[in-house]
């Protein structure tokens, strides 16, 4: 995780996998391009600041 992150967004992975592609980076971070660069809030499980 980046050191300058102020907010964490947790995705509902089951729901997300039904609609978009997820990738795991070399440093074990889950990444997505979303839909045209956007992840709609309906895929959020929780947000932590």
From TrEMBL:
Q: Which family does it belong to?
A: Belongs to the KptA/TPT1 family.
PANTHER family on file: PUTATIVE PHOSPHOTRANSFERASE (PTHR12684), TRNA 2'-PHOSPHOTRANSFERASE 1 (PTHR12684:SF2)
Q: Which GO terms describe its molecular function?
A: transferase activity
- Signal sequence span per UniProt? none
Q: Name the keywords, alphabetized.
A: NAD, Transferase
Phylogenetic lineage: Eukaryota, Viridiplantae, Streptophyta, Embryophyta, Tracheophyta
Q: Which Gene3D superfamilies match?
A: 3.20.170.30
Q: What is this protein called?
A: Uncharacterized protein
InterPro entries cross-referenced by the UniProt entry: Ptrans_KptA/Tpt1 (IPR002745), RNA_2'-PTrans_C (IPR042081)
Q: Which Pfam families match?
A: PTS_2-RNA
Annotated organism of origin: Glycine max
């Amino acid at each position: 995780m980046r050191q300058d992150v102020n907010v964490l967004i947790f995705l509902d992975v089951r729901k997300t996998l039904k609609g978009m592609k997820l990738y795991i980076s070399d440093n074990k971070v889950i990444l997505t391009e979303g839909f045209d660069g956007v992840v709609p809030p309906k895929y959020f499980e929780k947000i932590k600041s």
